[in-house]
Task: inverse folding
């Protein structure tokens, strides 16, 4: 469960002041696969960084599975798996050493470390694990970051543009993995610019624009709202965010 109550974040002062997120209220249930959509600069990444504890909101509250994420930061982070929009690594480590390090950070028991091999096989990364991360392509780095996020079987998986850079098979396997996570009663919250993925994969989507949440509903409900019959999620998104004037139908 993810609960955001009146969360705001502002950057700069005076004339350079920018309200990145404005009084955001959002509830994501356990077992829900939630897609977070918005144009560039809408506030998606800022919101995600506040949820995972990388940014402190100016005001408001964040609760993750009944844990106050602002007062119990370490406890909250222990139940999160997170992939940022630009993952960072210790480049001189091999992939396997890095993932073992992540397992140490999260106190993954030896019996659970077989997940490194299982997830590496799923994402066809086994052959690359002995190599230094500095030699990895962007796609292989993205797969490594995904494995690191899922290694400790977190209750909440938070992914910022996770499909970018993945080959079609890896993207398919990731989507299946995300859906399976939710079937297990866990929560997946991810941002994406790929409307087709959001439309077919998500239980609900939220649309943020200029720092404000302007919609949060199942894709089918948005598509069948008054005046939107037969519209695609992409058309609705563009109309709601004023990105284009595309007629429904």
Result:
């Amino acid at each position: 469960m993810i609960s955001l109550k009146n969360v705001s974040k502002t950057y700069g002062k005076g004339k350079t002041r920018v309200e990145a997120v404005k009084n955001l209220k959002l509830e994501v249930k356990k077992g829900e696969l939630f897609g977070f959509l918005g144009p560039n600069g809408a506030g998606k990444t800022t919101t995600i960084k506040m949820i995972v504890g990388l940014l402190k909101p100016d005001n408001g509250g964040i609760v993750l599975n009944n844990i106050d994420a602002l007062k119990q930061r370490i406890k909250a982070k222990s139940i999160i798996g997170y992939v940022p929009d630009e993952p960072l690594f210790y480049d001189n480590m091999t992939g396997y050493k890095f993932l073992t390090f992540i397992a140490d950070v999260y106190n993954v028991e030896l019996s659970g470390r077989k997940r490194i091999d299982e997830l590496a096989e799923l994402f066809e990364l086994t052959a690359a694990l002995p190599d230094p991360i500095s030699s990895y392509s962007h796609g292989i780095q993205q797969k490594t970051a995904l494995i690191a996020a899922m290694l400790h079987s977190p209750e909440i998986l938070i992914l910022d543009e996770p499909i970018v850079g993945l080959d079609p098979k890896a993207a398919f396997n990731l989507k299946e993995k995300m859906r399976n996570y939710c079937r297990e009663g866990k929560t997946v919250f991810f941002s994406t610019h790929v409307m087709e993925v959001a439309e077919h994969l998500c239980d609900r989507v939220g649309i943020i624009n200029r720092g404000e949440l302007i919609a949060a509903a199942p894709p089918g409900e948005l598509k069948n709202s008054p005046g939107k019959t037969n519209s695609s999620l992409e058309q609705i998104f563009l109309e709601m965010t004023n990105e284009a004037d595309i007629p429904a139908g």
